[in-house]
Amino acid sequence: MEPQRLPAIQGWNWIKRGYRLFVMAPLLWIVLLLIWLTAIILLSAVPMIGDPLASLLLPASLIGFMVGCRALEQGDELELAHLLGGFRQRTAQLVTLGGIALALQLLIFGVMAATGGAMLVATLMGQHVQDPEVLAQVIASAGPSILIGLALFSVLLMAMQFAPMLVYFNGIAPLAAMKLSLRAFLANIGPMLVYSITFTLLAILASMPMMLGWLALLPVMITSLYACYCAIFPLPAATAPGEPATPVQEG
């Protein structure tokens, strides 16, 4: 399975397609997003295990939005039940994907700590509460480790961009899905830049009227991710909305 290589203008087309999906059920998209955000915040607030558990479940929870997108494109209605799509099919694989991502995050923090950013890593992981002046000093002293961390986290984000959808819809193993997602991102740098720059500008506009624009922008960010995935990867035919494909092998 190979990702499509697309022209830069496709980055704008993904956003338009995502917006069309949003306006099919705008109020319900906002409700779904608020439920999801509330669940993530509450889970993360659990002492000790909250943040790791939220990371493990993140891919499975995000799939619910993708299942909703697919249902709309197949002519069905968006439902609250779609939010649980990732907990009904391929849950183990999606949680495994979350576990791999969590392990890589910890590895990156370890690299940052080993390259002079130990205090910064401790602060980011919530082990120390710093006042602004001390935090500024910590950041200033951790320059190289910050650059290394940004580079490594960027690669991880690229690898996770499409991985949950590849696991769920295409039946690809978690690690192979991350590799394929990274290849797809690098093969489509042009449209990804257009996509990212456009959303940056939209985020500035959404922040102006009391941040109210984010109620529409956040759902469109999610629905356009589905559009992006569908354009780059063939979406297998399914007999029901959101039904995953038969597992395939991907090296």
Round the Cα radius of gyration to an integer and report it. 19 Å
Which sheet architecture does the biggest sheet show?
none
- SSE series: HHHHHHHHHH
Query: Based on CA inertia axes, which overall geometry fits?
Result: globular
List keywords for this structure.
251 residues; 72% helix; mainly alpha; 10 helices; globular; disordered C terminus
What does this structure look like?
By secondary structure, the protein is mostly helical. It has one domain (10-232). The chain contains ten helices and no strands. It has helices at residues 10-24, 26-44, 50-73, 91-124, 132-141, 143-161, 163-170, 174-187, 189-206, 214-232. Helix 3 packs across helix 4. The protein is globular, with a radius of gyration of 19 Å. The N and C termini lie close together (9 Å). The model is unreliable at 246-251 (pLDDT under 50).
SSE blueprint:
Blueprint: H1 10-24, H2 26-44, H3 50-73, H4 91-124, H5 132-141, H6 143-161, H7 163-170, H8 174-187, H9 189-206, H10 214-232
Helix pairs in contact: 1-9, 1-10, 2-3, 2-10, 3-4, 3-7, 3-10, 4-5, 4-6, 6-8, 7-8, 9-10
